[in-house]
Amino acid sequence: MIDDITRISSEAPVQVRAAATIENLRDLEAELLGKKGSLSELKKGLAGLDPEGRREVGAALNVARESIAALIADRRAELEAEKRAVVLAAERLDLTERIGGPVRGSVHLVTQTWDRLVDVFVGMGFTVAEGPEVETDWYNFEALNIPAAHPARGMWDTLYVDLGDPETVLLRTHTSPVQIRVMTETPPPIYAVMPGRVYRRDTADATHMPVFHQIEGLVIDRNISFADMAGTLEAFTSAYFGGSIHSRLRPSYFPFTEPSAEYDINCVFCEGSGCRTCSHTGWLELGGCGMVHPNVLRNVGLDGEEWTGFAFGFGLDRLALMRHGVDDIREMYTGDVRFLEQFPS
Ligand code: FA5
């Protein structure tokens, strides 16, 4: 028996080392140390020995079992470390795509567009204002002449915030509530632009994101007419897109402006001759505009007999797409450095 134990102990290191996987090792462990394993089988033979032999063989069996168990534990730790290394290697993220000198980041395309739009409008004499992204129903809808249950609420798929009474606090669906804040806080004349992030329950596609940006414009002064608005928007269009791109206004409806219009520009891809991006119309829609509705002026305590004005709201991300010839808005939000580095600031 002692010879058998010695043989098993001397063969074990080679067998343990040969176990190439955790599963192989588990089988070998059962073979050597398990209830039906070789050492257990030998242990059964102890009953037939005299007390002296039982003590000697028993001690040898214990030593063998302990040393084999230690070998198996070491090999198991080794195999687990190897397995972990394989998983880590497979899941490794290469964040070092660029080799060589220090990498300079740049301002994101949306921020560049935001800054440039603000520059253009400031150059035209506008000031800049901002408002909160979490708004109340009053600023986002009511004050803008959209009472509760008004069908026009359906124009904006709203995300409500679970705060206060149901459907009283929301993520603003447009930058128009900032108009209300500016008009209640600043006496006219007002010439202001209001860039900001807005939220809608829209599904992302080539031209839509659920979180996007707008730039709002508001002018309140004496004797402001629709022609002032058309002229301002045309001046902005050539300043931002260059002289070959022009604007046009199409009749539309917004509850907070009357009359209302859609603001279109010549397609920047085909310059008006018609292509896939502009659905062969030669025009691209960038936002809405119109003369501030008398009810809105009343809601902020302004005398509509004395003051008139216009407002506009453009999709800032869409302006970025048009100006830089990007054909899918989602590109701007994937964070892919190969896309972003095409627009160094
Ligand atoms: C408005 O949001 C009005 N507040 C605009 C306005 C302001 C009209 C002042 C009159 C006076 P509209 O829902 O059409 O209107 O959105 C304006 C622009 O935002 C759109 O023309 C488009 O350029 C952009 N836009 C709308 N939804 C999305 C979206 N899901 N993703 C990206 N851009 C969008």
UniProtKB/TrEMBL annotation:
Record EC number: 6.1.1.20
Q: Which keywords appear in this protein's UniProt record, sorted alphabetically?
A: Aminoacyl-tRNA synthetase, ATP-binding, Cytoplasm, Ligase, Magnesium, Metal-binding, Nucleotide-binding, Protein biosynthesis
| Presence of the UniProt keyword Metal-binding in the record | yes
Please list the GO biological process terms of this entry: phenylalanyl-tRNA aminoacylation
Q: How does it assemble?
A: Tetramer of two alpha and two beta subunits.
| NCBIfam families for this protein | pheS (TIGR00468)
Q: What's the protein here called?
A: Phenylalanine--tRNA ligase alpha subunit
Q: Which organism is it from?
A: freshwater metagenome
